[in-house]
User: Fold these one by one.
Assistant:
Number 1:
Amino acid sequence: MEEMRPITDWLPITKREVEKRGWEQLDVIIVSGDAYVDHPSFGSAVIGRMIESQGYKVGIIPQPNWRDDLRDFKKFGEPRLFFGVTSGCMDPMVNHYTAGKRKRSTDAYSPGGKAGFRPDYATTVYTRILKEMYPDVPVIIGGIEASLRRVTHYDYWKDQLMPSILVDSEADLLVYGMGEQPLFEILRLLDKGVPISSMKNIPQTSYLQHQDDKLLKNKHWQDVLIDSHERCLKDKKSFAANFKVIEQESNKVNARRILQKAKEKLVVINPPYPPMLEDEIDASFDLPYTREPHPKYKKRGSIPAYEMIKFSINIHRGCFGGCSFCTISAHQGKFIASRSQESIMKEVDAVTSMPGFKGYISDIGGPSANMYRMKGKVQSICDRCVAPSCIHPVVCSNLDTSHKPLTKLYQKVDEHPKVKKAFVGSGIRYDLLVDSYNKNGDESMGEYMDQLVSRHVCGRLKVAPEHTSENTLKLMRKPAFKHFHEFKKKYEESNKKFGLNQPLIPYFISSHPGSQEEDMANLAAETKDMGFKLEQVQDFTPTPMTVATVIYYTGLHPYTLRPVFTAKSPKEKKNQHKFFFWHKKEYREQIRQSLNKMGRDDLVEKLLSDARKQVKFERVKNRRKNQSKGNKPWNRNIPKKRK
């Protein structure tokens, strides 16, 4: 019988749990849009455990009810130091709505997967409530929503530009990116009695001050003033030009302080901390997590996001891909912070001891699974770099892309006596594994491929070529599709070597800026030729702080200020998306009409010539299946025609 943990193993989420610890007042209260899962993949647990590790009393208010008498916000009273607010692991608008702006019926971060337990724009809603109830208590916001909305940004769901989230939420301070480093300093200063209004020199934070107030000088930082929020509202080109500065400063070693005027306020964004050192990131993952949801959720059903990752291990943070549609580098940065092998193996021990573990680790990965320990060979070159990507348009000659440390890590995990298989569930960067693209490659690429294929693929391997069009891929900051052909060949050869047949599952995006309807038709034809019936497909969703979103809103590329076509209307988007499904009967006629209109009779033949045969084959197969079950075939009772 499973032994019950004491409730004090979790951070407290009720008044009774606080009293059980003998505490009268909490030092910090975290308000979160997610259910409380005490696991290193959930931000509020990481921050809570980090604050606890410094000797402070911390509690969490998960998914408070914002529509009743607000009793959830009152249950702990005032914290001694501050309220910390996060909307959760996802931007709540992405969590709540599809790319077509339809409301989702589920929420992966809520018990039972039920929707409706957090508001739209949760960070702003929670913060306003707290500021009204406790006007003298500092409120610090963080997490993905706050991080990506720290400057003027385009909001797809309102279809308008919005100012920094600091303006609308009225929070005292914003921590962007992965928040451990700035929070250590904030805690130290608040505990010494320094008012939060004086905390203007902490890296990786942002705050508001009146435009007329004197700006605090910092001899180590240079300043850059970008166009004001009001200017961006009047001129889309100004908004686009701003983004180039923002993205470059977010990914520099020695970044400038960004200043932007908005509604008589000045938004000040301090440069980020350097990437975490190995012992720093290890310390974050080595905290005493229970690795389980709080017991209060047991009767409300499992939390889908937790079920998906509970037997997984994150080995690094950051991504140097710089994809135009992705927010990872804007939040985690482009420089890789890798954990030590010792810390990872300690977590392997913890995972293999969890209830229900049957010998299979679902993922050993990160934002991109195969960037572990990759970094610049000469740091001084990285210190001068302003490029948002280290591997586009080419792999940087200063980037060490050796897969040897990762292969050794996989082998070490495989040696663990309780591990039957450790899978790589995260997507891998296939372009780092082909000679035609990765000119820095060495023999470790082949060793990694063989190790991956022979031991770590769970039936199918996820990769993300995203498109086939050369022009669209350039806008995406992804390699030409010919390199994917090479990877597929190499992957299949490795499978053959080990007597395996593990299909590739490629991910693609429709309606991305730069993608035309004809590009999607070509994509469908080329992937069909390669033997794919596409499953992992999505319509482009504009999210704050990406190049692609800026193009979507302005029609201009922020680095060139030249026009770029983007499918925006529901009809245009639908016309692109349908080509993914050439093999489905309900799309055949629409695709035929579109191809005829384009004058692409060659693609009509290529995509649809065998579609009728396929439908007939499926019909016969289903009929035989029904007969084998003892069911009457559809024509059993039709009288035979007389001679």
Number 2:
Amino acid sequence: MSDPIALPAKNLEHVFYPQSIAVVGATRVAGTVPHDIFANILKDDFQGIIYPVSPKEKSIAGVKAYKYVLDIPDPIDLAVLVFPSNVCHLAMEQCGQKGVKSAIIISAGFREVGAEGIQREERIKKIATKYNISFIGPNCLGVINTDPAVHLNASFARQMPQEGSIGFLSQSGALCTAVLDYAHAKHIGFSKFVSFGNKADISEIDLMMYLKNDPKTKVILVYLEEITAGSAFMQAAKEIILDTGKPILVIKSGRTTEGAAAAASHTGSLAGSDEVCDAALRQVGVIRCATIEEMFNNAIALAYQPLPKNNRVAIITNAGGPGVLATDAAISEKLVLAKFSDQTRDLFKKHLPPTANIKNPVDVIGDARADRYKIALSGALKDDNVDGALVILTPQSMTDIESIADEVSRIANEYDKPTYASFMGETDVAAGITILQKHSIPHYVLPESMCRAFARAFHFKTMREMTYNEPATFSDIAKEKADAILRSAIKAERKHLPEEESIKILEAYGLPILPGGLATTKDEAVQIAEDIGYPVAMKVVSDDVVHKFDVKGVVLNIQTSQQAGAAFYSIHENILKFKPRAVIKGIYVQKMITDGEEVILGVKRDPSFGPVIMFGLGGLFVEVFKDVSFRIAPVGPISAGMMIRDVKSYQILSGARGKKPRDIKSIEQCIQRLSALALDCPQIQELDVNPLIVNDEGMGCFVADARILL
């Protein structure tokens, strides 16, 4: 069990299961939002009582209308506001006086239109706070609950969706109408369907936590244009997935950021908002989707069928080409073609034609009817070596499509293993597809999509079973030393710390530091170099120099005292040449490791998710290929290990081409300590450890350079 998330109490039960509704601002004019909201509630068989509120009308659709909410003689559970935005506050005030505790504000013209709309929205929020009213919106499509106990369509959607087990939450109302039409065509049903608009009160987090405990919902889908409370979103998602096993699928728009300002650190420039969001969602097991089609391809697999216990699939087809395509797609998605037992092969050999392929994929031949699909599918699902089945059908003249669909549906529901189908085509296979969908068999137009959905379901199962371990605690951290350095820098209004101070802060948090010291004269530089032993590196220390290499403020691989003295002067000359006004505090002399792999660690403070930790290999891998991974602090041992393995260049660390593996465990330790530092020190805006030199396995690693921005 995860720690429960603390949220303000919201009156969501009255939003989804009201016994009485007042539509405030209803009209008789068909084709308008105020009319269609009322008409939808009425015609879609709402199981409670509905009251139209209209200052001008005596009745609407044969139902007695009331001039004001306060005129209604009975208690009201839910108010649906469709008045123009400039008078919504008056209606909200009356709802408060009436004792209404839940509302849906459909009306637009609030925060989304600018300063005047923001003022209107703030006025509404103050009234809601005054009377303890929980509300969805404003600027939304509305709320749908397909549960027969209430059958509520408090929206201006064109049609009520089928009942199902998928909960859909969307920040965009316009997208909702397209989603409903898409789902209707594919016989996809919903448990709850919510457009939450500006989320001035009830947010996606409140709604997700409600669906967590909703017995009608198996899968939660969310469309977001912004995540304003990233940490709370992560905590809620983690709690839902761990405590209930319900998958969460998210589409987050705004993947690209145009015209972003250049950051002063590698981490700052690489950890864009979308990269951070992607890492945060993956970290808690949320499935991020790029398109509506991808979202529903995954959703039907997760909602309709059991999760695969492993990734071994059986492919059954009546055509060789699509079987090959499915095989390629399965391997590409890291699935494994199951190896059938001798008993299964004997069964296939006995009952399938001699020309049939009884290996995997199983080709039941183009003239196959339902009996062959029955033998192949039941035999595969019965085999202990098979974790799920992928059924392909191409329409031939002799193919009894509907009978095969019936047989596939019947057999699939007899086993606790997932079965997906791809009846390829459109017109000829339409009736068969309908049968599959009505029997909760996920159907995909293309075999590739089917394989991808199976892989996502298996990945979710794997992630769900992973322990979200608590971050390690370190008894050797000297937090007060780091605080003292940071306080001094902030008091002096410095924007960034010199390397010497940055390294002291890292040392206070137990990161392994190479010996070194600050020299203000040539003789001091030589003495420090002699004391720590050659080779050494020498670097300028100046508040006016952030990127030392760009101004030739670094000299590497110094082997003698003469070279150390010369480097001291040459660095000063270079700085005066490139930055004449720079104030040089001294030259930092540091022990240099000539062997080892360079990696980079970093921290960036994201406004929504908080401190973000970065890892990547140094040099070209970061500079050119942007081969990095991210996690949100706190980062525990398992997440630290996954973070390192996420980068494409991981094999360089693990021992590619006969090289010795590097000390990955020591990197994991550094990531966790950096995570603790980031959480303890909110003054740090960005931090780079670049490079961290990693020695061979068991030999540790060392911080070679560091930069901290405040």
